[in-house]
């Protein structure tokens, strides 16, 4: 999707506001009231969800990041006064350096949230550009297809691959998601480190939330 300069500018402005951490939700009874649309960031552990949220809002340390997979252990909700929507940083799925029962518990909370949250407008499913779509990602795609929650795939860490590999990674991912009913056909490519692809993603988030 191509955004107009005005849409890009509006999204940039919105993300330049002060975003704050609203609450961390360990189980679904602690969810905020469903009074605003929500945009969630999902993906395997360590794919760069929290880093990408920080890069989008240009606030280092808003969402906690780590080298250790499994850093984010709750559903973390962020808001900004003029936004009118919430951003949700989800715990990673797949590998996590945490006790197995803990991991299963988050997995369940995560899946229940993705399946049943009425105000969830779109999920951005992050995929590491070096590794591509894995079986666990496809499980999440299928869960979202079945729940009729629309989602868009975002490749992360493109600073870690060579420039000519980027369009190839996009193409390969778009070929996979073609078969998924609720997937947005266009795949985005980002680097939180180099701040690449952020304006496009900001506009996509604002568009999905409005
Ligand atoms: P969990 O919360 O554990 O699921 O991880 P996460 O998906 O939130 O990942 P996080 O943002 O904590 O980042 C994981 C690691 O990847 C950190 O060491 C980041 O510095 C690194 N990282 C994130 N984004 C980028 C990027 O764009 N480029 C590079 N080179 N490294 C990145
Ligand atoms: Mg995280």
Describe the model:
- This protein has 210 residues and is of the alpha/beta class.
- It has a single domain (5-209), classed as Rossmann fold, CATH 3.40.50.300.
- Helices cover 36% and strands 19% of the residues.
- Strands 1-3-4-2-5-6-7 form a seven-stranded mixed β-sheet, with helices on both faces.
- Strand 3 and strand 4 form a beta hairpin.
- The two termini are 15 Å apart.
- The model has no long low-confidence stretch (mean pLDDT 93).
- Bound molecules: guanosine-5'-triphosphate (GTP) and magnesium ion.
- Magnesium ion (MG) binds next to helix 2.
What's the topology here?
Layout: H1 5-15, E1 19-25, E2 38-43, H2 49-57, E3 75-80, E4 86-89, H3 100-116, E5 120-128, H4 135-147, E6 151-156, H5 165-177, E7 188-189, H6 198-209
Parallel strand pairs: 2-4, 2-5, 5-6, 6-7
Antiparallel strand pairs: 1-3, 3-4
Helix pairs in contact: 1-6, 3-4
Task: Provide tags for this entry.
19% strand; 6 helices; alpha/beta; 210 residues; 7-stranded mixed β-sheet; Rossmann fold; binds guanosine-5'-triphosphate; binds magnesium ion; globular; single chain
As a percent range, the share of helical residues equals: 25-40%
Distance between the termini: 15 Å
The coarse silhouette is: globular
The mean pLDDT is 93
Strand count, sense and closure of the main sheet? 7 strands, mixed
CATH architecture: 3-Layer(aba) Sandwich
Radius of gyration (CA) equals 16 Å
Structural class: alpha/beta
What is the H-and-E element order? Answer: HEEHEEHEHEHEH
Strand order of the largest sheet: 1-3-4-2-5-6-7
Number of helices: 6
Name the hetero compounds present: guanosine-5'-triphosphate, magnesium ion
